[in-house]
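Working notes for the structural subgroup meeting. M.R. asked for a predicted model of this chain before we commit to crystallization trials. I am recording the input and output together here so anyone reviewing the notebook later can reproduce the run.

Input as submitted:
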Amino acid sequence: MDDPSLAEIMDEAAALERRISELPAGYISRKTINGKVRFYRQWHEGGKTRSVYVRESELEETERLITERRECASRLNLLRKRIAKAERMDSNGGFHNTVRRGADLILWAEGTEGWRRRQQCSDLDAYLRSDSERVCVLCGLRRTGKTTMIRQAIAGLDAGDQARSAYILVSERSSMAELGSDIRRLREDGVRYLFVDEVTLLSDFIGGSGLFSRILVPDGMRVVLTGTDSLSFVFAEEDALYDAVTEMRTTYIPYGEHSRLLGTDDIDVYLRSGGMLSSGQLNLEDGRIEPDGLGVGPLGSMEGYLNRSVALNIQNTLRNADAGSYLMAFQDLYQAGELTNVINRVVEDINHRFLLDVVDRDYRSANLESAAGNLREAGEDLLDDVDADAVLAALKRRLDILDRDERTVDVTQGQLGRIRRYLSDLDLIDDYVIEDSDTGRMLGTAMMQPALRYAQVTALLESLESDRAFMEAAGPRRDAVRTAVENTVLGRMLEEVVILETQRSLVGGAEVFKLCVGRREVDMVVRDRESGGCLLFEIKHGAVRNPRQYRHLTDAEVSSYVERVHGPVVGRTVLYRGEDAEEDGVRYMNVESYLKGLPASVGGLFPGGLDPGNEATDNCRPDAFGGRRFRGSARISPVICPYYND
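Returned structure, recorded in C-alpha cell form:
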C-alpha cells in the first residue's frame, strides 16, 4: 500500500481536529460524599480546574469518549510531525536537511573570495586531493572558522569536482537515518565530495558515525565533517570512527595566525578577543569587522558563548553518547540544574586553585587582590577603600557562581577531573610545567582562548561600578584603577600565551617551563634537550624598559640553581611591547615579533641555534596531513600550582 500524500495527511489531521473539538476533555475523578461514590469529569481551562457531575449511567460512555479524544490527540501529534517534516523536505528540495549543490553551492563558496585562510586550509586541500580512506573532521568551538574553511575548500576545487560536490547543513530535528537517506540520493547523483556541517546536532551521531568511515570513504568519497559539539568527535573516534579519522582542530588560534588574519600586530587585540572568528562576519582580507564579528564582547555574550560552546557542548555529548550512560557520573548535578555552573566555574578558575578548591572554596577574585597590590605600590589606595565583599558579591552574581553553601548538590573530585579532561579534549586548556626549587614540578594550566579569560575582567570592572566608594572617587582615580586591573590581568594572560605558544612550537626539540626559586620567579625557561643550554625569560605587558624587570634573570641564586639542575644559562631575555634593545647583557625583544617568529625567534637566541624537533611526543598525534591533536604538553602531576606573579 502506497504511503498517503501530504494532502491526504493534512485532510486526516483536519478531521481529527474537528473530532477532538467534539469530544470531552479531561479525566474522571471519584469522590465519596455521605458514603456514596460520585463521579466527576475534570479538565483544565483558562488556568483553572473545571468540573461537571457525571451520572453513573453515563460513566462508561463518558470514559470511552475521553479515551477516544486522547487517541485522536496522539494520532494528531504524529501527523503534525509528519506534516512539518514534509514541509521541511519540500522547502529543501526533497531533502531532510539543507543541501547546497551546483550553481548555488559555487556562489556560496566563492563568497569567500579574497578572505585570508586559516593554516589548516592547506591540510584540507591536501585531503581532498588524496586517496585517503579516512574521514576528515574539522572540530572546534563556535566562531573558529570551520564553515569558512569548507567554503574556501570548495572554491578551490576545479569546475569538474565542484559539480560533484555537495554541502549538507544538518537540521537539529533530523536523524542519522534521514541524513543517510539524503546522502544515498546524492551518491546516486554522482556526488563524490561531501561536506556535512553541524553533524553533531544529531542525537545518534556518535553511534551511527560508522556510515562515513565504513561505507562512504571506502566507496571513493571524500567526506568532511564539522560540528560545534566537538567533544562528540572525541567520543566517536573512540567508537565508530576509531582509527578512521584525519583530524584538523580549529579552536586554538595562535597569535601569529590571528595577527595575519586580522592584519593587526597589537597583542592586546589578541588578549581581548583571541580565539574566536565569526564565519561570514569577518572579512579576513581587508580586516573589516561587522557587528559581533570578533570576540565575545561584554559579559552577557561571553556567558552565552561559554554556555553554548562549552557547557552545553559537554552536556549534549554526554547525553547522546552510549544512550546517556556517560551522563550518569553527573546525574545529580544535571538534574539539579547545576552542571552548567560547575563547568563554567572550572573554566573561570582553572589556573587559580587546586581542582577541588575550584568549586569548594568561597569565591575570591585573585585579579582584584593583585590589582590592589599593584596600585598600593604606586601610591593609589582607592581599592583599599572599596567594600571588597560587596564587589565580590556583585561579581558572583554576574558570573552566576554558586558557593558551597548555595549549591544543592556536592561536587566530587572525580567529577571535576572528568570536566577538566573534557576541557582538554575541547582544546580549551593546555598544561605547562611549573618547577619550584623547594617542592618540585607541578602543572599549570593555560586558557587557549584568551577572549574567555578577558571577559572575566569585564565582569570585575562592571562589578566595581556597584561600589559606592569607588563611584564617589574622582574620575581620574577611577580610570587609574580600571587601567591597573586590566593591565594586571593582561600581563598574566600574556605570560600564558608566550609559554603555551613557545612549547607548542618546539615539539620534541626543547622543554619549556616556569621556574620558582624561593621568592624569585623566572616567567619562562627554555632548555635545549641536546646541549642542556637554558634561556631565561621575563615577560612584561609594558613597553618601557626598567632594570627591575630583569633582576630575577640575573640573580645569582637563580642562575646557580639553573646551572646546577639543568645546564648553563646561555641567554637572558625580557619580552615586552617595546623596541628591541640590549641592557647589561640582557636582551629586550618585542613580544609580538617573538610570537610571530616562532619557532625561529626562540631558536635564534641559542648560540648555535636550536632544532625545534619534528618528532611527535605524547602531547600530540600527527595525522596523514600534518595536523596535530594536542593532549596536554606536560604530564607530571595532576596538581594545579596556585602561584601568582604580580
